[in-house]
Amino acid sequence: MKAVGLTHYLPIDNPESLVDIEIDKPQPVGHDILVKVEAISVNPVDYKVRAPKDTVEKTPRVLGWDASGVVEAVGPDVTLFKPGDPVFYAGSITRPGANSEFHLVDERIVGRKPASLDFTHAAALPLTAITAWEALFDRLGVSPQGADAGKTVLIIGGAGGVGSIGIQLAKRLAKLMVIATASRPESARWAKELGADHIVDHFGDMPAQLKQIGFEEVDYVLMFNDTDRHFPAAAAVIKPQGGIATIVENAKPVPVELLKAKSAAFHWEFMFTRSMFGTPDMIEQHKLLTEVSRLIDAGILRTTVGEHLGKINAENVRRAHKLLEEGRAIGKLVLTGF
């Protein structure tokens, strides 16, 4: 079967950094379903895994952790899906990725594709929806039923993939006052269209900008961009007993001591945790995606496709990696069909 993979970890401008390959079609066992991949989207985790290093893979490694497609076959322990079911999911970072014609994934982290979306628009959602949902509702403990309505959240990186769905969850489900960051007019427009009440520039003095629009402090901070750079500002603006959640790994120690006097909480969110460790509650991601699918079909949430880059091949996947590395992508980058 066709796939996009790598054997050497190279700069994205090198045409050998990602190449078109042929690999064997896998067969499902246990809780696995075999999915015929129809569309994928590309996330920062893809280029971070591909980042240059000395490792050489003996067999090609396939990346890609966002996909939609149709169930081709199921393992003997599968109970949630059957062949022919349209699905969407993010997969596991510890297994081969979805940049291939057929892909194995555990049914417990898969959702049924929203009926109102085609495969392209559905592929934009799983990884970012899981990440934003878990950060806001599971880590920070915000009510998805609106019990915290009127509280304030600062979303750093509002126009990115996770920010694009995070704004919607915070505004449309939690009923929060949403302050999103964006540094360009086009990304600010995007964030406002998704429901942000206010926009500030994360390259500027965020505490000063917040004061200018009437907010000395915020109840929550969702950090979807550069933990090292933005943590001090987040600590400065978080309310006493508030909470900060970040999804971005740090390169230097996080100064959590800045939160002590405020008794503020700090959370990490990593949407691969359940699949990586095989936690007993893995099926919660199936339930989460099922709910996201329902909310999409009900018109409460919308897809976050920013740009369609064409067919799934090495050249187009490299282009997606490059756009993400440059930090100028708005919404999600998607590819459809081989």
Automatic annotation (TrEMBL):
Keywords: Cytoplasm, Metal-binding, NADP, Oxidoreductase, RNA-binding, Zinc. The keyword Oxidoreductase applies. It holds the Pfam family ADH_N. Residues 13-335 form the Enoyl reductase (ER) domain. One of its GO terms (cellular component) is cytoplasm. It is found in: Cytoplasm. It comes from the Bacteria. One of its GO terms (molecular function) is RNA binding. Homotetramer. Belongs to the zinc-containing alcohol dehydrogenase family. Quinone oxidoreductase subfamily. This is Zinc-type alcohol dehydrogenase-like protein. It comes from Paraburkholderia phymatum (strain DSM 17167 / CIP 108236 / LMG 21445 / STM815) (Burkholderia phymatum).
